[in-house]
Amino acid sequence: MTSAMAMSFLSTTAASSSQPPLPARRLPRRNPSLPFPLRPPHRLSPFSAPPPEPHRLTYRTHSTSSSSRTPTAAGLLSPVISTSRTLIFLLVASLLSLSGVRPLPSLASPPPPTQQPQETEEQEQQQESEEKQQQQQEEEGVEAEVEEAWLRQDEEEEVEEKEEEEEEADDEVQMYMEILSRDPGDVDALKCALFAKMRRAEWGGALGFARRLREAEPGEVEWRLMEALLHELKGDLAEAERLFNEVLAEKPLLVRALHGLALCMHKRSEGPTVFEMLEKALQLAISGERVPEERNIKLLIAQMHVVKGQLDVASEKLQNLINEDPRDFRPHLCQGIVYALLDKKEEADELFDTYRSLVPDEFPDKSFISDVIQAARVESKDRLQKDFGSEFLSKK
């Protein structure tokens, strides 16, 4: 269609050019002059002056008089040439678009989208959050390094203290060994050597001194209990249980022997037989009207429920003991430990305060019980059940 229109314009131009040209009117000759005057005829209008009105198009009717100007061939061809150029440009653009060549960008295309204020604020907030998080991580890293340094220092100090204690213990044991080399039956030297070995957890070496003490004082039950206890600490539960039963055969209500035997049976997973054994001992104390032993065995039964993790049962039995004798400090202490294991910190602290107000100043295991209270506040349940001994069961 475009080529047809172009051809029509060209044919029109050719037809008009075939006619004879009209006679041109000569203009009168003028003298040559400058294209602009040397002096402006008037002052330039200021910028604030209104612009001149555009020329209005006036339509003149065609007159056949001789005074009208006749169009030339160049004037007729100018619109045709302009139209042809436009059509050719459109044709080339369409061919370029069809051939896959990207056309020139349009001036009317919208500008690229700019960032909205909300997006900018979100980016700033995200950047601030990342900076805060990085700063927090750096602070946590510094704190962790400081804490690690303190722990390392504490460990080093503990190692040094342990080494010093071992050296002192070695010197102490060496001194006692020199005494025993001169007098093998020196009971005091044997006791000191025994306790020095136990402080270093050398159960085998301590067991040798316990046997020598048992031979030196065969009527003393303490060394028989100590020998059984050391077998239990070594892991020889069968031998420990045998030795505890030997003591109970002579003294069936001795609470320390009952406690040692109960722990051995518990470690050997003998189950309910532990409480059956303790219940028989309790009935024996009741029938013999042995009130102190009866109360000690009841307290031991509650303690074994703690060892087995049956805290509710233990708490009930301990409360019964408190109601029976509020002046006895031991149930208050045990109940406080149970409350600490149950995360009842306030109730535990109240019972610990009651214990401190009731315990005698001369009570020999007071420092040991203070360690138990501290363990109840900060240590785990397993550690507490391991350390919770019966040294205070027979004390009142």
Provide a compact summary of the structure:
This protein is mainly alpha-helical and 396 residues long. Helix content is 68%, strand content 0%. It is built from 15 helices and no strands.
N to C succession of SSEs: HHHHHHHHHHHHHHH
Return the structural class: mainly alpha
Average pLDDT across residues? Answer: 75
Strand content: under 5%
What features would you describe in this structure?
With 396 residues, the protein is mainly α. The protein has a domain at 290-396: Serine Threonine Protein Phosphatase 5, Tetratricopeptide repeat (Alpha Horseshoe). 68% of the residues lie in helices and 0% in strands. The protein has 15 helices and no strands. It has helices at 2-18, 73-98, 117-182, 187-199, 203-216, 221-234, 237-250, 255-267, 273-287, 291-307, 311-324, 329-341, 345-358, 366-378, 381-387. The longest helix has 66 residues, at 117-182. The chain is extended and about 130 Å long. 21% of the residues are buried. Mean pLDDT is 75; it is low at 2-29, 31-51, 54-71, 103-109 and 390-396.
